[in-house]
C-alpha cells in the first residue's frame, strides 16, 4: 500500500452563520468522518455591532479549531467583510489562515488594479458625500416646505426620505461607517489582507485557473470562473428577457423612480467634483454637474419669487442629488461583478459546488466564454457542463433579481440533488433592499429545481407571493413534499439548525 493513500472527499459540511443579510459560510471537507480541509467564505453582514457579532465569530472560530486552510474573500462590500472589522481581536488572536484567496482585482501590486482603485475610490467618496447630503436635505425643514401644499405632501416626503435611506444603504456597503469621506479600503478587507496570521502569500485568482493537488482535497478540482477581466463584462448588470430575471415590481413608485434615473447619469464622473450646499459654488466644484463658469453669483439677481418661502415649491435645489441613486446602483453592480467565483468539482462523481459571491449578469455571461480546453488540452469541458452538475448553489446576492442569471445560470442547474443556500435575513437588512430581495421568480425556480431544498438564513417576514399572503416557510414545506420519503428523510437528517447557524451536509459521492 502507498504511504499516503488518497482520501477522496465523501461529503462537505456547509455552515451558514445567521449574522444578518451577508455571507459568512464555512466548509468542512470530509473523508468519511475525518475533516481533511476547511474553507471560509467571507465574514460579513450589512450592519452589526461588535457585541452582536461576537457570539457568531466565537462559534465560528471554535468550530474551525482556530485554523482555516483557505480563507476566501469574494469582494469588498461590508456584507462580506464587516465581521473582520467588528471582531478584529478575535480573528487576529484566534484564527490562523493557511491560504488567503482573492480575485485578481485585489492585487494592488498590479498597475491596472492600482489605477482602477484610485479612480473607483473617488467615486466611493462622491457617493458617500452625495448620500450624506441627500439624507440631510430630505430631512430638512426647507425640503418639507418645498412639498407643503402638495396634495400628497406626507406621502411624497416619506417617499423621498425612504429613497435617501436606500441610497445611504448602498453607500454604506462601500465606505467605513465612521468616515464622512472615502479614505481607503474597508477596514474589514484591510484586516483580512494585512493582520490575519497566514502561512502563505495571498493567492490572487483569475478566470480559467484550475486549482488541484491541494493537500487535504484529494480528488477535487477548483475552477475559477470570475471575476471577469474586461470592463464591459464587469459593467453589465442584466441581460435580455429570458437571460436574467425581472424585478419583482417593474412599475411600483420606488422602482420606477430608481429606474428612471439610470439614463440621467450615463457618466458618473461628474460626482468626483464637489459643491457647497449654501447656494454658492466654490472654486472647487466637486459635486456640481456643471463647471463653475456656468453659474452666476447670487448677487447678480434681484430678489425674485424664487426667494419667497411661499414659493418654495418652485425650487429645484435638491433635484440633482436624486441622480446619486444611479451612481449607487452602478457602483454596487460593478463591485458585485468583481466577486471571486469558484466552482468546486469532485472528480470521482462529477458533482460541483458553486460559490459566486454576489456576481451579477455580466460575470455569469463571462463564464460561458471560458475555453477550458486551452487549460485542459483534449478536454471538451464547458462552463455549461459544470453548471449542469451543480449539487450545491450558494445563491448570489441574497436572492436579488440580478444576482442569478436565468438561461445561462439557474436553468442550467438540473442535477436532481441540487441544494441552494441564500444569505437573506430580514432581521438585519437595508430597508431599500426589501423590494428586490427575495426575487419571487428566482425563489419559485429554486424551489422547483431543489424540490424545497432551498435554505434561507431566516424565513421570518418572508413571503412567497408579491401580495405577502403566503409565508415562505409554508411554501418550502409544500415543495419538500414533492420528494420521495427516503429522499426527504436523507435531506432532513443532513440539516442542523440553531439560533447561530444552519448547516447542511452535501454528499459528494
Automatic annotation (TrEMBL):
InterPro entries: Competence_DNA_uptake, RibonucZ/Hydroxyglut_hydro
Superkingdom of source: Bacteria
Protein name as it appears in the record: Beta-lactamase superfamily domain protein
Source organism of the structure: Gimesia alba
Lineage per the UniProt record: Bacteria, Pseudomonadati, Planctomycetota, Planctomycetia, Planctomycetales
Amino acid at each position: 500500500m502507498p504511504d499516503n493513500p488518497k482520501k477522496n472527499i465523501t461529503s462537505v459540511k456547509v455552515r451558514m452563520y445567521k449574522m444578518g443579510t451577508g455571507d459568512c459560510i464555512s466548509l468542512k471537507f470530509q473523508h468519511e468522518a475525518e475533516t481533511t480541509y476547511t474553507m471560509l467564505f467571507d465574514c460579513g453582514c450589512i450592519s452589526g455591532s461588535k457585541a452582536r457579532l461576537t457570539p457568531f465569530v466565537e462559534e465560528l472560530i471554535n468550530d474551525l479549531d482556530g485554523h482555516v486552510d483557505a480563507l476566501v474573500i469574494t469582494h469588498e462590500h461590508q456584507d462580506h467583510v464587516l465581521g473582520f472589522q467588528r471582531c478584529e481581536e478575535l480573528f487576529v488572536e484566534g484564527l490562523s489562515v493557511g491560504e488567503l484567496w482573492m480575485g485578481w482585482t485585489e492585487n494592488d501590486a498590479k498597475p491596472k488594479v492600482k489605477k482602477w482603485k484610485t479612480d473607483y475610490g473617488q467615486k466611493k467618496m462622491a457617493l458617500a458625500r452625495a448620500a450624506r447630503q441627500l439624507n440631510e436635505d430630505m430631512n430638512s425643514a426647507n425640503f418639507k416646505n418645498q412639498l407643503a401644499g402638495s396634495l400628497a405632501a406626507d406621502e411624497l416626503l416619506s417617499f423621498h426620505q425612504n429613497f435617501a435611506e436606500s441610497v445611504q444603504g448602498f453607500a454604506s456597503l462601500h465606505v467605513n461607517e465612521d468616515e464622512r469621506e472615502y479614505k481607503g479600503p474597508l477596514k474589514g478587507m484591510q484586516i483580512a489582507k494585512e493582520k490575519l496570521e497566514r502561512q502563505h502569500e495571498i493567492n490572487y485568482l483569475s478566470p480559467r485557473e484550475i486549482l488541484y493537488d491541494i493537500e487535504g482535497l484529494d480528488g477535487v478540482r477548483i475552477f475559477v470562473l470570475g471575476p471577469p477581466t474586461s470592463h464591459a463584462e464587469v459593467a453589465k448588470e442584466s441581460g435580455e428577457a429570458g437571460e436574467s430575471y425581472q424585478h419583482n415590481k417593474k412599475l411600483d413608485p420606488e422602482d420606477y423612480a430608481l429606474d428612471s434615473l439610470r439614463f440621467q447619469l450615463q457618466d458618473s464622473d461628474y460626482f468626483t467634483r464637489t459643491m457647497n450646499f449654501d447656494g454658492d459654488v466654490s472654486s472647487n466644484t466637486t459635486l456640481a454637474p456643471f463647471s463653475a463658469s456656468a453659474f452666476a453669483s447670487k448677487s447678480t439677481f434681484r430678489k425674485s419669487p424664487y426667494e419667497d418661502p411661499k414659493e418654495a415649491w418652485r425650487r429645484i435645489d435638491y433635484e440633482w442629488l436624486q441622480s446619486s441613486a444611479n451612481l449607487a446602483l452602478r457602483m454596487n453592480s460593478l463591485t458585485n461583478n468583481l466577486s471571486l467565483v469558484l466552482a468546486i468539482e469532485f472528480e470521482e462523481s462529477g458533482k460541483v459546488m458553486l460559490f459566486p459571491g454576489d456576481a451579477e449578469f455580466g460575470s455569469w455571461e463571462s463564464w460561458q466564454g471560458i475555453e477550458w480546453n486551452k487549460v485542459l488540452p483534449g478536454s471538451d469541458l464547458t462552463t455549461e457542463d459544470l453548471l449542469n452538475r451543480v449539487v450545491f448553489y450558494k445563491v448570489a446576492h441574497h436572492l436579488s433579481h440580478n444576482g442569478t442569471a436565468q438561461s445561462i445560470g439557474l436553468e442550467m442547474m438540473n442535477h436532481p440533488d441540487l441544494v441552494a443556500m441564500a444569505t437573506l435575513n430580514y432581521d438585519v437588512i437595508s430597508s431599500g433592499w426589501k423590494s428586490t430581495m427575495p426575487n419571487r421568480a428566482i425563489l419559485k425556480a429554486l424551489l422547483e429545481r431543489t424540490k424545497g431544498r432551498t435554505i434561507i438564513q431566516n424565513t421570518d417576514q418572508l413571503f412567497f407571493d408579491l401580495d405577502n399572503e403566503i409565508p415562505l416557510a409554508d411554501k418550502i414545506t409544500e415543495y419538500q413534499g414533492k420528494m420521495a420519503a427516503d429522499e426527504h428523510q436523507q435531506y432532513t437528517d443532513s440539516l442542523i439548525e440553531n439560533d447561530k447557524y444552519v448547516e447542511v451536509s452535501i454528499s459528494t459521492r
